[in-house]
Amino acid sequence: MERDLNKFMREQYVIPIRVINRLPKKRKYHLLDIGASKKFLKRFLPKNVRYYSLDYVGKHDWVFDLEKGKLPIKNGFFDIVVCLETLEHVTNPEKVMEEILRIGKKDAVFILSMPNDYNFVLRFYYLIGKKTKMHKPFRTVVEHLHIHVPRVKDILDFFSRYINIEGVYYGWSSRTGLRASGLGGEILKIIDGFINQLAKIYPSLFSRLVSVWGKRKEVS
Question: 16, 32, 162, 181: which could join 185 in a potential S-S bond, CB 3.0 to 4.6 Å?
Answer without folding.
Answer: 181
